[in-house]
């Protein structure tokens, strides 16, 4: 029983680390819906992907602010990991 509990705890830890790594990725484009505050949902690599998701909704796409400000100052965007 102890080995099964240890294996489960190890698996849960690995999955938690992988989930954090997936969320840390910086995507280039963000989807904004209506008047929501903040940068929006930044899950799109290309503008076409973002526009396909925005199609038929009260939404639009913009460049991720991390990329816009990094380009303005001539630096790479902060990755955070």
What is shown here, in short?
The protein has 3 helices and 3 strands; from the N terminus they run αββαβα.
Plain-language structure description:
By secondary structure, the chain is of the alpha+beta class. The protein has one domain (2-72). Helices cover 47% and strands 17% of the residues. It is built from three helices and three strands, in the order H-E-E-H-E-H.
Uncertain segments are: 19-24
Number of strands: 3
Order of strands, main sheet, comes to 2-1-3
CA(first)-CA(last) distance: 36 Å
Give the DSSP E fraction (strand runs of 2 or more residues): 15-25%
Q: What count of structural domains?
A: 1
Query: What's the helix-strand series?
Result: HEEHEH
Which secondary structure elements does this structure contain, and how are they paired or packed?
Layout: H1 2-23, E1 29-33, E2 41-44, H2 47-54, E3 59-63, H3 65-72
Antiparallel strand pairs: 1-2, 1-3
Provide key terms for this protein.
single chain, 81 residues, alpha+beta, 3-stranded antiparallel beta sheet, 3 helices, extended
